[in-house]
Amino acid sequence: MTLTCEDRCAITELIAMHGHLCDSGELDRFDEVFTTDVIYDVTDFGHEVLRGVAACAEAGRALGELNPVGHHVTNTVLSEQADGRVHARSKGIGVYADGTTGSVTYEDTIVRMDQGWLISHRKVLARRVPLGG
């Protein structure tokens, strides 16, 4: 499979939409960016792996005021996989209500479904030290 420019644009917008849904509190719309059985790995932050869109939405609600006020994604790089999936690597910047920020790397597996491209697996890696430390 060869990714078209349209595919690349759709996947990049998909990854960006996650931040918009989080920041607007529209967590019940996560099925627009994730497969229903998504694996969302936040173990690098000391949490359990989340399984399914409902678990992801509930985790966001439980975090409450500790959520960033702004999720910003950049530096998205897409790699086609032989099985038709796409590996996406992007950088995330979280801005908190007190003005502090944090940086993460998103490692995503993207699959084509009937409704379009969706994230089936996401691993969130905290960036804590420079140069990959």
From TrEMBL:
<dbReference type="Pfam" id="PF13577">
    <property type="entry name" value="SnoaL_4"/>
</dbReference>
<dbReference type="InterPro" id="IPR037401">
    <property type="entry name" value="SnoaL-like"/>
</dbReference>
<protein>
    <submittedName>
        <fullName>Nuclear transport factor 2 family protein</fullName>
    </submittedName>
</protein>
<dbReference type="InterPro" id="IPR032710">
    <property type="entry name" value="NTF2-like_dom_sf"/>
</dbReference>
<feature type="domain" description="SnoaL-like">
    <location>
        <begin position="5"/>
        <end position="123"/>
    </location>
</feature>
